[in-house]
Amino acid sequence: MFISTSGFKRMVREAYKQGLLKIAREEGTLIIRGRHWNMLLDPKYLPNKEKAALIEIAGELPDEGEQFWCEAEGNQMMVLEGRHTLPGPVKTSEYKKTELLIDPRYRIFQDPYSYKVVAADAYIVDQISNVFCMDDEDPVSAPHSDGKWIQYSSMSMLLTISTYVLDQFPYLTALEGVLIEKEN
Hints:
Blueprint: H1 5-17, E1 21-26, E2 29-33, E3 37-41, H2 48-58, E4 67-70, E5 77-79, E6 93-94, E7 96-102, E8 106-110, E9 117-121, H3 122-125, E10 144-145, E11 149-153, E12 157-164
Helix pairs in contact: 1-2
């Protein structure tokens, strides 16, 4: 798992408080969803601290084919009917995470060839690192985007984070077509 324990716990806790935490298991994959992010992972790469955080909120992890919607108000857990749709990789271009922050909640990403820019939740993306991977886990990829999502992946995990685009931050228009680089 290439996201920090504290980052994972915060993401899950915030989604739970908003009534937007969904946990499912399909085709052997654990799926965890919040308001602006989706995580697919091989359960054997879910560290015990992260597993404990999910169980503390949901009461248990779903069995194959089950899905839970966890909310702080009302019922702790509701079992949703129907099959969960696995969000998979989308056709993307590699983007570069820049040092530029807006608001300061949003980290700017840029396509190094077209210079298109998108913004994503800085807290989440700044918690991603190979440092957090288990010894037998492969490293995390460079970020990729289709303009709507930023994706990080490894062989055991896919993290998809929704992006905020030009119409949500009109002043990003000024950055389109300009290479964003850190000065030496």
